[in-house]
Amino acid sequence: MAFWSTTKANATQARAQDIKWRAGPRGDYFRLYMLDDISELKVDGVGGVYLVWHGGVKPGWLLAGNAGDLGHVFRELRGDRDIRDYDGRGGVYISWSPIKDEYRDGVVHFLARSIKPVFECEFDSRKDAIPVMLPR
Q1: 118/89 Cα distance (integer angstroms)
Q2: Which of these, 122, 120, 119, 77, lies nearest to 95 by C-alpha position?
Q3: Which of 71, 124, 127, 136 could lock 44 by a disulfide, CB 3.0 to 4.6 Å apart?
Q4: Comparing C-alpha atoms, which of 44, 65, 60 is closest to residue 93?
Q5: Which of 43, 101, 39 is nearest to 69 (CA)?
Q6: What are phi and psi of 84, to 5 degrees?
Q7: By three-state DSSP, how is residue 105 classified?
Q8: What pLDDT, in 10s, does the model give residues 95-131?
């Protein structure tokens, strides 16, 4: 899937996909450092893409990424001092969406280019960006 159509007659931007970012039962997103146990999220062994951001007066995007085991990544993020430094700025939040492996780099490519997060995102830049909607 390309970001822009390749035909002259139909040169439009691809429609962003709603990948259904995961939130809690009440619709609120998960605060990373308020979670007692990552296992409660039921993401161990689950692959997909994820977003990390901080709230506060001037909220901002911290990181977009993809993984074959989101539970493992979230545990690593909890131990990351650079990410933890943002918790005092209104909390650090996470969300994810299970995405097939072959589409993950394209989604992260789009997210990294769109949100310009604080931390560098790892993805295969040769993959076409796949437009997705951001968490609401």
Answers
A1: 14
A2: 77
A3: 71
A4: 60
A5: 43
A6: -60, -35
A7: helix
A8: 999 999 999 999 999 999 999 999 999 998 889 999 9
Token readout for 33 is 């450092």
Q: What is the pTM of this model?
A: 0.87
What is the Cα–Cα distance from 71 to 49, expressed in whole angstroms?
12
The pLDDT tens digits of the residues spanning 69-105 come to 999 999 999 999 999 999 999 999 999 999 999 999 9
Two structure tokens written together for 112: 């990294």
Q: Hey, CA dihedral for 100, 106, 110, 115, is it positive or negative?
A: positive
- Decide if 63 contacts 121 (C-beta within 8 A): yes
Tokens of 21: 């970012």
